[in-house]
Write a structure and sequence with these properties.
Layout (H helix, E strand, L loop, with lengths): L1 E6 L7 H17 L4 E3 L17 H17 L4 E9 L7 E9 L2 E7 L22 E5 L2 E7 L14 H7 L6 E6 L7 H16 L3 E5 L1 E4 L2 E4 L3 E3 L5 E4 L6 E6 L15 H18 L5 E4 L4 H14 L4 E5 L7 H14 L2 E4 L3 H15 L6 H22 L2 E4 L3 H6 L12 E2 L6 H11 L8 H5 L19 H13 L4 H6 L4 H13 L1 H5 L27
Parallel strand pairs: 1-2, 2-3, 7-8, 8-9, 15-16, 15-18, 16-17, 18-19
Antiparallel strand pairs: 1-14, 3-4, 4-5, 6-7, 9-12, 10-11, 12-13
Helix pairs in contact: 1-2, 5-6, 5-11, 6-7, 6-11
């Protein structure tokens, strides 16, 4: 028996598009001689639909698309993730998997473990299922689960769906899991560890179909897979693209090639996919960004050109009197290497206009962050004007390290529609830049080797205001991603005063991040919906 695991890239609420996409892959699966085709979680509506689930018209459109799919299904059995309405006390919906055959819903599984951590909020919308599903197909008994159901841990959930499968009246021969599992750096290894242990413990092979594509700041990486009962990866689909993995029930216990490993290259793929899908799914085709001659904007420009094509990217250098000539030269050289458009707009006249307007108030006072921020806001206004006039989405270029401690300007360099590398720590920015240059210099070497600077005052350097990025990133990872306390961070060898100052800055700048553009999530804990802290708080560690 041949089974096709298909990872689709849906657009939330685009029911006709998503339906045609499903039918297209069903046709390919039939041509390949498959008996069963498996699609990801909530394939018809896309994941996560959030409060669209509270709109009756959205649910009606979903049900019409499901009815059309059932009507057009012929000659193959299909597992599709879909919404299921329910009545009675509790939530009005199940997150379900339907087994469709012979123009009807033959079997169904309802998601039992509803995650509420990080970016997930499923108990807001769904009622949990209460029973595990095993269905017969071509001589096999298939256990059907949905995403989180195979991520059970005793620390998180009481009920274990797989335990119910094992002690049920029918013991399955394999597990099928349909997922919409978001990507972050390290997730591939985490999945393989969890799934391998699951397969060995239950002595069952796993067939895993995962969504692919960008949705707001989330990236779904695909990497659908088959894992043997011994916990060995048998086969895997491609990452970050739509793909179909065909497996044969007679041979899925055969170990395949080496498993995909977590790498910085995958972070680059995720960022490219995130930019492409965010723009295309929101109706944009072109982007604009400020190119300073620094490494952050250089990396953002490369990602934008790879996502959209260099012909659709405009890079703008906006020098001030403090901008070094080599910054302009490096920005121009990068644009030439990429093949994208490049323009130069000097901001000195605008700076003089601001000085004149503010002179009655600022006379006699030393220049400080106020004047520096005006420069950033002039640049932000110029870029937003180009964005508005030419229908180009403005991409912001700040990294996670700066965003964490507020080394950024509201309504200045934070202006824009998408913060491409807002979840990329500074050290990883350098790793990505070196990766990009591995096959030849794209980012001019001086951009990578020169000390980072905002060039908002004479001889300025980031390290005048920030600790070395090696230390800053280590503290931020411990505090933000590993949830370590200040005491634990200091015990690891970090200077106590320095650690306290970094944590103080993180808390102090929550208000900036609340007003920041949406960013693409590539670490285990990004700023955004997965990290919810109050702006006003009095807690001191």
């Amino acid at each position: 028996m041949k089974i096709a695991l298909v990872q689709t890239n849906p657009t939330i609420g685009a029911f006709e598009r998503n339906l045609q996409q499903i039918l297209h892959w069903i046709g390919k699966a039939k041509q390949a001689g498959c008996d069963l085709v498996v699609f990801p979680e909530l394939t018809l509506c896309g994941y996560p639909p959030q409060d669209l689930l509270e709109r009756a018209s959205f649910l009606d459109a979903h049900d019409r698309a499901l009815a059309d799919l059932i009507k057009q299904l012929d000659g193959i059995t299909c597992i599709v993730g879909a919404l299921e309405r329910r009545k009675g006390p509790g939530k009005p919906l199940y997150n379900s998997a339907f087994v469709l055959e012979r123009n009807k819903i033959a079997f169904r599984a309802r998601k039992q473990l509803l995650p509420t951590y990080d970016v997930f909020d499923e108990t807001r919308y769904f009622e949990p299922g209460t029973t595990s599903t095993v269905f017969p197909f071509k001589g096999l008994q298939c256990g059907l689960t949905i995403c989180e159901d195979i991520w059970w841990s005793s620390e998180t959930y009481q009920a274990n769906p797989l335990k119910d499968l094992a002690i049920g009246p029918i013991v399955p021969d394999c597990l099928i899991n349909i997922s919409a599992s978001p990507y972050h750096h390290g997730k591939l290894g985490e999945r393989q560890q969890v799934f391998g242990q699951l397969c060995r413990h239950n002595n069952l092979p796993l067939l895993y179909a995962n969504q692919v594509g960008g949705q707001d700041g989330l990236i779904f990486d695909g990497h659908s897979m088959v894992m043997t009962s011994a916990g060995i990866l048998g086969a895997t689909a491609a990452g970050f693209v739509e793909d179909m993995l065909i497996v044969d029930s007679d041979s899925w216990e055969t170990a395949g090639g080496p498993p995909p490993e977590d790498s910085v290259a995958q972070v680059e793929q995720a960022l490219v996919l995130g930019v492409r899908d965010y723009l295309h799914k929101t109706g944009f085709r072109k982007a604009v960004l400020g190119l300073s001659g620094g490494i952050d904007s250089a990396l953002t420009a490369v990602i934008a050109c790879r996502a959209l094509g260099p012909e659709n990217v405009l890079c703008v250098a906006m020098p001030s009197p403090y901008t070094a000539q080599h910054s302009i030269d490096d920005a121009r050289k990068l644009a030439e290497n990429l093949g994208c458009d490049f323009e130069l707009i000097a901001i000195s006249p605008a700076m003089e206009a601001y000085r004149a307007a503010l002179a009655p108030f600022f006379t006699g006072l030393a220049e400080d962050a106020a004047e520096q921020n005006i420069q950033a806001r002039i640049r932000g206004n110029l870029l937003m004007a180009l964005s508005n006039k030419f229908n180009r989405l403005l991409l912001t270029t700040g990294n996670k390290s700066e965003m964490a401690v507020g080394y950024c300007t509201l309504y200045g360099d934070m202006s824009g529609g998408l913060a491409v590398i807002a979840d990329v720590p500074k050290i990883m920015v350098y790793e990505l830049a070196r990766l990009i240059n591995r096959q030849g210099e794209i980012i001019p070497e001086r951009i990578i080797t020169r000390p980072p600077t905002a060039e908002l005052k004479p001889d300025q350097c980031d390290q005048d205001d920030l600790p070395p990025y090696e230390i800053l990133d280590a503290v931020l990872q411990a505090y933000l991603e590993e949830h370590k306390s200040l005491e634990e961070i200091v015990a690891s060898g970090v200077d106590a005063q320095l650690a306290r100052d970094i944590v103080r800055r993180v808390k102090l700048n929550e208000y900036k991040r609340k007003q920041a553009p949406l960013g693409i999530k590539v670490t285990s804990k990004a700023f955004g919906p997965g990290r919810r802290y109050p702006v006003v708080q009095g807690f001191a560690e």
